[in-house]
Amino acid sequence: MKLTFPRFGDSNIYGRLLFRELGVDFVVPAPNSAEGLERGAARAPEDICLPFKLMIDNLLSAWEQGADTVIMPATMGPCRLGEYGELLAVTMRKQGCDFRWILLDSISAIGVKELVHRLAQAVEDSLCSKRQIFRVLRKTYTLIKEFEKLEAEVRRLSPYDKTAGSSKAVLRTCRRALEQAEELSEAINIVRQSKKELHSLPRDMSKRPLRLLVTGEIYTQIEAFANHYIEDTLMDLGVSFEKNISIGWWVRNTVLNPFGGMLAEAKKNPLMPHRIGGYAKETINEALRCKKEGFDGILQLFPVGCMPEIVAKSVFDGLAKDEGLPVLSIVYDEMGGEAGYLTRIEAFIDMLERKRDMENVLSGDRCRIGKHGFCCNGR
Amino acid sequence: MRIGIPEALLFRRYEPFIRKFFDNLEVDVVYSGPTNGEIMERGIAHCVDEACLPMKIFQGHVVKLQAECDKVVVPRLMKCEFGDSICPKFVGLPELVGKGRAGSKIIFTEPLYLNDRNKLRKAVIKQSKQIGVSKAKVNDAFRAVEEFVRARKQGECYGAGAVSSCEGGGENTGGITGIHDGAIKVALLGHPYNISDSYANMNLVSKLKRLGICPVTGDELTREDMDEQMTGLMKAPYWRFYRENFGKAMALLKKGSVDGILYVSSFCCGTDSVTIEMIRSRIGDFSMLVLKLDEHTAEAGMDTRLEAFAELLERRRQKSKGTVPFDFLKGEKA
């Protein structure tokens, strides 16, 4: 058995180390690329969402490398992700790739016993004892947590860099080192080392960068290729931002906490009182928090046709009109052109900066002359 | 108090029950009437750009009603009769239409579980205050509807209205007049709101009949017939209309009672993107036409496609009988 899994975000790093440590034979699909997307889109139904098209290419690439079993999550009804498994299987069979499928469904749909059974299938080749397996899983989770913490720091701190781009470089070096790491403990050390390095960088804390919140559909947020490397773009534009939806967040809410769904449903949210599938409610939750915590604006990312996020966007439209909350919704499709996205993001950031300068003037901060030459002498 | 009920989305499917419920309540009810150009335009103007056509039409109905009524019913349908869900947009319908504004006129936003009697009853009774009717009265009306449901057979309950409503009343598929017995039969599949909204689908049913095609909606199939077709799938599908359309297609195909499949979908429909592909993967080279509806109202493209499809079916049928109408087709393989 040769295991593989679709790529999303840094799942290749985590998955590689995890299965390596478990002694399971595995294959990591080639990174997402424009050619890959083209290949995936040509084989997928036309109206399906972007993640599906990328996954087709991932699995084709894994098949070429000799994989024969796919493990993938299949929860999240009534959004499309839950039906991915079946359609992926059909599409792959059409391409002559007859995979064995291990679909990790939620406990409420298949029961604990079946879930454990399916998980056991994934590690059937492993020589590790149950205890060892759990230890490895825990270590993987630690790695995920640590690395995501590092990422969050970089996102927050990068605009304060004295030499622009130095924080970003630390993250990049760290990621590259992780891809080469031999085992989990080593990986965790690499991350800790990088964190120290990040903190020792010279910073100018007197800068006042914009604070943005990035939210939206989970795959688009996690997989950098699907969002046209928006994080790099934002860092280059000198914006401090937060992005809370991540693999670790998903693990915490879905795997580690079986009541995660219930808790999310119980959370009060006047704008979207019920979970509608996918993570639309979480998107709105984040937005409300953004209002409270004084972020300057929101970026909502989703692939074209994403059903739950369309509803969220509708709520954002209302929010933007009624409360003046600046939201930029970016809808991604197969188009590879960067310029259109970049222009919109730049314009949004310019608009926010100007808006903030204006507010400073109005609130009596008279001596400040805005970056854009906004002068307040007359008032 | 005036209550508006939009005649869009699944209204046709549950029409008898909705009408019965509000008749029993004896409140002032306004129905928005069938879709027309103005409704659609208003919907497109007010709805979020990325939404699909049926949602925009629904929004149009709501906008129309908001002007004339005190409250507008926008149900939050969580689960259908058999515990299947529909699509996230149905669950988030009040948010999609109301844009999350608290002060809007939208009512019936409590989650409705049609598969759970008690939950449904509670959710409906909770609305009594907003409608301005006593709880007891709402309860009575709810019970009356329940009696009504029990008295009906499954086939009459849902879906049956789809085709006849396009024709402006009349009989169901079985009794279509003006079509001889040997007519080409086509399975008319898709979400019921696409099939029953004759404005959105540009009078599809009458067009088919004009071409001498008899549409079969498979309403006589029971839930069990459809569930039977789900065997062999890795995971039981959770969308109501995935199960329904996939089940119907497979069942009708097995019976051999149709010559082709006509699937009516709307542009960017999330669930249909999966359903259509799943049907395609199972039918081999059986004829299937997928029509996508969007905001365009030009009919020529639709007509051409339907005519071509009709011709294709006719030829295939003759070829299978051995009488090829044109010589050059003889060489073509089946």
Describe this structure as you would to a colleague.
- The complex is a heterodimer of chains A (379) and B (334).
- Chain A is an alpha/beta fold and 379 residues long.
- Chain A folds into 3 domains: 3-128, Rossmann fold (3-Layer(aba) Sandwich); 133-205; 209-379, Rossmann fold.
- Chain A is 55% helix and 9% strand.
- Chain A has 15 helices and 7 strands.
- Chain A has helices spanning 11-22, 34-43, 50-64, 84-94, 107-122, 130-157, 166-180, 184-199, 218-222, 230-236, 247-256, 260-266, 280-293, 307-323, 338-362; strands at residues 3-4, 69-73, 100-104, 211-216, 240-243, 297-303, 327-332.
- Chain A has a 4-stranded parallel β-sheet, with helices on both faces. Chain A has a 3-stranded parallel β-sheet with strand order 1-2-3, covered by helices on one side.
- In chain A, helix 6 packs antiparallel against helix 7 (166-180), helix 7 runs antiparallel to helix 8 and helix 13 runs parallel beside helix 14.
- Mean pLDDT of chain A is 86; it is low at 367-379.
- With 334 residues, chain B is an alpha/beta fold.
- Chain B has 2 domains: 2-152, no CATH class; 177-329, Rossmann fold.
- Chain B has helices at residues 11-25, 37-46, 53-68, 88-91, 93-98, 117-126, 128-131, 135-151, 154-157, 161-166, 192-196, 204-210, 223-228, 240-255, 270-283, 300-321, and strands at residues 2-5, 28-31, 71-73, 76-79, 106-107, 111-113, 184-190, 213-216, 260-266, 288-293.
- Chain B has a 4-stranded parallel β-sheet with strand order 2-1-3-5, with helices on one face. A 4-stranded parallel β-sheet of chain B has the order 8-7-9-10, sandwiched between helices. A two-stranded parallel sheet of chain B has the order 4-6.
- In chain B, helix 14 runs parallel beside helix 15 (270-283).
- The longest helix of chain B has 22 residues, at 300-321.
- The N and C termini of chain B lie far apart (63 Å).
- The chains are: A alpha/beta (379), B alpha/beta (334).
- At the A-B interface, helix 4 and helix 14 of A face helix 4, helix 5 and helix 15 of B.
